[in-house]
Amino acid sequence: MAGGAAKYRHLSRKSSHRQALLRNLVTSLFTHESITTTWAKAKEAQRLAEKLITLGKKNTEASRKSALATFYTPHSILPKLFGPLRERYANRPGGYTRVLRVEPKKDDQAESAILELVDGPKDMRFALTARTIARQRAQGFDTLNEITALNVRKVTRFRDGGVEALEDEVQNPTPRRNNLALPRNLQHGPAGRQRPRPTGWSRRRAPERPRRAGPQGRGSLHLSG
Amino acid sequence: MSLRLFPSRLSAQGLSPAGSLSPALANAAVGRWSQFTLNASAVSQSLLRPAAFTLNIPGLLSDIWESVLRAVPKKKTSHMKKRHRQMAGKALKDVKSLSTCSGCGQIKRSHVLCPNCVASIKKQWGRKNTE
To answer: What keywords does the record list, in alphabetical order (chain B) (predicted)?
Structure first.
């Protein structure tokens, strides 16, 4: 490109079009907490989203105005940005958003990605890590491998009550999956099938509780986080 | 096809076009510029009558005719040939970087989230929202 290396992706659009696209993406991101788009668009929208959260954390009149000028539906988003999101990220020094690669969604096989707000209700890495830990425990392993340990650290580090929240996610989504998405659970293999499923959830949970509080379950999390 | 027809028609007309061609070729041998400055027909009548020239040049022309001028594709390249040529080296590549999903145990691409887990987690979120 003339004038040296490009500092940002042009996304095959002229300036105004690109600006509108990014505003749209960012508006959707703050509305829904997580969006799926092409990887390049996600990376560009990530820049803008991080800057907007910084504006939220500054919380001045000027920052309010520039945030107002960015969103397409500012009146539904601004209270969220300057309220819960500001509090959620108060201690986090940057890195409020995350881009995760997923299998291509568009029919041109363009690289797709999930762009999400970290530590939100739609934190995909949090959910996946919880799933991994749950599977490990179902198979009887008590230690986590390096990557899972790193993910546990990423997911719990700045979250309010991070370890407890993760532990809760590990324990809780399983009954729902059992009830609602049975075939998915059967894919886990014999270990998943041997578990006594329908005989009273509270009874099944009782023997697991001491294990959760015990040195094994806790120890693995502390070791990592 | 027109390229091939053009010289063959010339040869079919026999000596008379060869006679009119020969002075031009002879001129080229004598001097390149004279061809443009002088009237070709006048030169041919006055100077280049000798039989040796008119006999030699068709021979030379026929040599070129066999080797160079005839170097034209005999057939149109078929669709298949053309597509094979143009698609050479552009075949799909095998996906070799695979790993096992730690969440469900199925095979997935490395550095890409497992589509099964992502789909089921999204389903779960949808249920949570509707609840």
So the answer is: Ribonucleoprotein, Ribosomal protein
Instruction: Look at residue B93 and tell me if it is in a domain.
Output: no
Total domain count for chain B?
2
- Residue B43 belongs to a domain: yes
B16 and B57 inside one domain: yes
Q: A181 at the B interface (CB within 8 A)? A: yes
User: What phi, psi does A116 have (nearest 5°)?
Assistant: -135, 155
* CATH 3.90.1030.10 for the A15-117 domain, yes or no: yes
pLDDT digits (tens, 9 = 90+) for B3-60: 444 444 444 444 444 444 445 554 445 555 555 555 555 555 555 555 555 556 666 6
Is B82 part of any domain? Answer: no
Distance (Å, whole) CA A74 – CA A27: 8
Establish if B112 touches chain A: CB-CB under 8 angstroms. yes
Q: How far apart are CA A4 and CA A119, in angstroms?
A: 38
Closest CA to B118 of B99, B107, B104, B98: B104
Residue B86 lies in a domain: no
